[in-house]
Amino acid sequence: MSPATFAADVVVFTDSRHPVKTMGGERLIELDEGPRIEAELSAQLPADPEQATAIVKRRLNNGGADLQRRIASAYQGVADAWSLGVTSIPSVVVDQRYVVYGEPDVARAVARIAQHRRPQP
């Protein structure tokens, strides 16, 4: 059986500086996505606060619903990490109960969890 067989829900927490090897089907949360979006919105703004505000509003409007979803998803990911008690990255969380820290290969982390969950003879 594949490692994914043992995992109904797999969530991976990382950031852009800690790439992971995904296995497919997991939820990938990059905890620095929110600040990266903010940096996009605030890139090359003028010093004048009124002009800067107008440009950011225009960027937000031009981004539309897709940008709003990206922002919401980015900060929901941070909230999810906090609520699960994630303490370091990368981390692979299975079924909101088991976690492996520091393993960038998601399939290997899930396999370690599956091995732990197997009934002992």
From TrEMBL:
A Pfam family the protein falls into: DUF1525
Domain of life: Bacteria
NCBIfam families: conj_TIGR03757
Name recorded for this polypeptide: Integrating conjugative element protein, PFL_4709 family
Organism from which the protein derives: Pigmentiphaga daeguensis
